[in-house]
Amino acid sequence: MKVKNAAGKIIETEIDNRIFKPYKGGGKNTGKTKVVKNLEDALKKSGLKNGMTVSFHHQLRNGDFVLNKTLEKINNLGVKDIRLAQTAMFNAQEPVIDFIKEGVVTRIEGSINGVVGDYISKNNPLKAPVILRSHGGRWSAVRIGELHPNIAIIAASSADIRGNATGILGKSAFGNIAYSQVDAWNADKVIIVTDNLTDYPCPYREIYEGLVDYVVVIDRIGNPEKIVSGSLKITNNPMKLQIGKHCVDLMEATGIIKNDMIFQAGAGGISLAALKYLGERLKEKNMVAATSTGGLTEFIVNMYNEGLLKQINTCQCFDTVAVDFVKNHLESTSTIGEYSDPTMKGRNTDRLDTVVLGATEVDTNFNVNVNTHSDGRMLHGIGGHQDVSAAANLTIITAPIFRKSNPIVREKVTTITTPGEIVDAIVTNEGIAINPKRKDLIEKAKGKIDLVDINNLKNMAYDETGGPQEPNLGKDIIGMTKYFDGTVLDNIYQVLGG
């Protein structure tokens, strides 16, 4: 069939059993800016309504202003029944408790650290259990549509009028925006919130203008003093230093310390101590590691500057030295998807030789709890715990056998965060236990370091404390831990009498 199109040409609309639409006329795209007057306006333009899912990232950490400000505007608009899909939440988000009470927030699918988790644990105020996912598990859930953000709110320390954005530059710089690309790709609407509007195009664009609907400029996205600390400190506790050293002894005994090894360690005191001893051991052996993964600290930057590390691969900055490093080494950054999305054909974590992680509890089956305390209160997120445990050749969990009067090594953990089958060793102040399933590691370590049966560690903990106190839990499920493949590992129950 032939028709005349808007350009005055006669064109054929059916060729080879395919239908082609005739040109109907064009128009100049005169939209030069995406900046709107305020956050409330951006939410209205995004079609905000009751029951929607709104997502955030947590890289402003305890200095974050954006989540609270957004919920305040949502409340002002009279919108209720919001599902929060933050990557994590800290004590800075304590006002969320009031928004829960007022019915603005009724569901949460994201990590919770601190007071909000404590409130939910004791009061069971939500419509549905909180869903806790690992970093990789959350990224995957958004990518495949299990968790769909209607509106993604992405805090950026710098952005331009078209929505190109970064977390590396500006007065509130927090490091690379590693968590939000998947939200930007999949959300119905994307709002960039910044306190530093730059010339076009914004340097280091981590979020691309083609994904962004609106840009909002506010006075402050966060408090820089609480976003990152000046420096993190190695523990000076002799017991914790000993645990850190024993981690490196275990690495050496099992052949992990070698040229081109790949490692990850967190920002806690014991992890930093392990990094210190690892650096010393590499130097003694005249060896150079290939790269580090995960979060970046001054201590890893120092290893790089000392020539003990060829590269850095980071998805989050934990101090100002790390932020400065990624400004000058953008090639060192990666997204959470690159880092640990289990549905991808490859992840940065897949080549990990070793990782050092913490725990609130471990048990005789090597299951690990990082989400709840022994009283059942939901106080922590999963982070990358499962992601790296499943990938590393040697997954090391560090913990004292007891804290105060509470046994940390016990018969059963209160909540399973990371299943014992992917945990290789528990390093404590009373010795090292290797998972019996890892006969290869036990054979390598034999005669080089002393090993302890995990049950002996439990017995020592019980002797010192009198054994665990059973938590006072109800029957209502207030949360659940998911494995990174989307399956449910454990349920978290309401804490009674708190």
Structural commentary:
With 498 residues, this protein is α/β, with parallel strands linked by helices. It folds into 3 domains: 1-30, no CATH class; 39-109 and 147-227, 3-Layer(aba) Sandwich (Glutaconate Coenzyme A-transferase); 238-471, Glutaconate Coenzyme A-transferase (3-Layer(aba) Sandwich), CATH 3.40.1080.10. Strands 17-15-14-19-22-26-27 form a 7-stranded mixed sheet, sandwiched between helices. It has a 6-stranded parallel sheet with strand order 7-6-5-9-12-13. It has a 3-stranded mixed sheet with strand order 8-28-29, with helices on one face. Helix 2 links the parallel strand 5 and strand 6 (82-86). Helix 8 (238-253) crosses helix 9.
Strand order of the largest sheet: 17-15-14-19-22-26-27
User: What is the number of independent domains?
Assistant: 3
- Provide the CATH topology of the largest domain: Glutaconate Coenzyme A-transferase
Q: In percent, how much strand structure appears in the residues?
A: 15-25%
CATH class label of the largest domain: Alpha Beta
Second CATH tier, the architecture of the largest domain: 3-Layer(aba) Sandwich
Structure described in brief:
The chain has 498 residues and is an alpha/beta fold.
Features:
3 domains, 15 helices, six-stranded parallel beta sheet, globular, seven-stranded mixed beta sheet, 498 residues, Glutaconate Coenzyme A-transferase, alpha/beta, 22% strand
